[in-house]
Amino acid sequence: MGGLPVGNSSESKLEQGSAVVKSTPDGKPKKKICCACPDTKKLRDECIVEHGEEFCGKWIEAHRKCLRAEGFNV
Fold this sequence. Notes:
- It is a single chain.
- This protein is mainly alpha-helical.
- It has one domain (8-69): Helix Hairpins, CATH 1.10.287.
- Helix content is 51%, strand content 8%.
- It has three helices and two strands.
- The protein has helices at 8-18, 38-51, 57-69; strands at residues 21-23, 29-31.
- It has a two-stranded antiparallel ribbon.
- The protein is elongated.
- 7% of the residues are buried.
- Pfam families: COX17.
- Cu cation binds at residues 34-35.
């Protein structure tokens, strides 16, 4: 039937791969870095596109601060 593999292994891979929130050993939820802090990321990216990286230190640092608060080491 279509040549697609049938079984739990492909289903579990899809479920695990699509998860955005993961648990850390202490039980605290952890997001992928690309999905964390969307508001500051948007402001940072817009500033860099419009004005250049050298003029956007305020937004870059705000995004880094947010990422650190989420548990990332940046």
